[in-house]
Design goal:
three-stranded parallel sheet; 15 helices; 300 residues; mainly alpha
Amino acid sequence: MACLKTCFEGRRTKSGLAAFGWIKKVAILDGITMGGGAGISIPGLFRVATDRTVFATPETLIGFHVDAGASFHLSHLPGYWGTMLAGSGSGEYLALTGEKLNGPEMIACGLATHYAPSAKLPLIEEGLRKLVTDDPSVIEASLEQNGSLIVPNNNGILKRIEILDKCFSCGTVEEIIDALETETARTQDPWCSSTLKRLKEASPLSLKVCLRSIRDGRFQTLDQCLVREYRMSVQGISGQISNDFVEGVRARMVEKDYAPKWNPPSLEQVSSDMVDQYFSPISELEPELELPTTDREAFI
């Protein structure tokens, strides 16, 4: 618990403020962009994806929940990718499945603002070093001058936006799975069956917690999401609700047998009370997260 607190406390420093987008910056996403790495990058005004970028929120596969602001960012994806439009479920899709996105896909869904091949990053960085102002319009002009236009491959997830939205906009995890099973039988699309497989590999409790977290995040500020996610993290690692996080880390990161024994083992056995407990105030011995809102404007 002390380590978790230290992690969040570090975000209160000046460097932490910069990392979480409270000071203007350019994030270069040249490689794996997950977890805390994504958390300190996505709030930035400018996010440069490359041909080496791999973004994902795979927490449900280790019995955890999306954090570091992900419940805000995923639930506010623009256009047909996100949940800002009625009936769209891409935020839910990314959070529940932990599926990976590449650089062009990040551009398409709005998680990245610019694209450049990795080989051109020295030009990007040199252009930024020469700037004598932090004016966003000047920064953007420099990025556009040295960046590249990219057209996402239409053979991946972009080709299945309609099915994705239809399935992941359902009200519950059980209904999402039922919808995917129906589409699998109807279309014989390997994407549907592989998505079903990923959902069935994830912690049932984490799936329900993440779905609620994403949908709560749609109506909360980033600050509110961060405070709530910290509370959820404390509850999740306490072991008082379930030991799924410990079991997930064991199965995927330590012993790597990829055979976690989830508790509860099925969606039907996950009670509403268990999910509610994740969102409940933490004990008096563990104070709530306090963000440094006096040092900057609150995020909306």
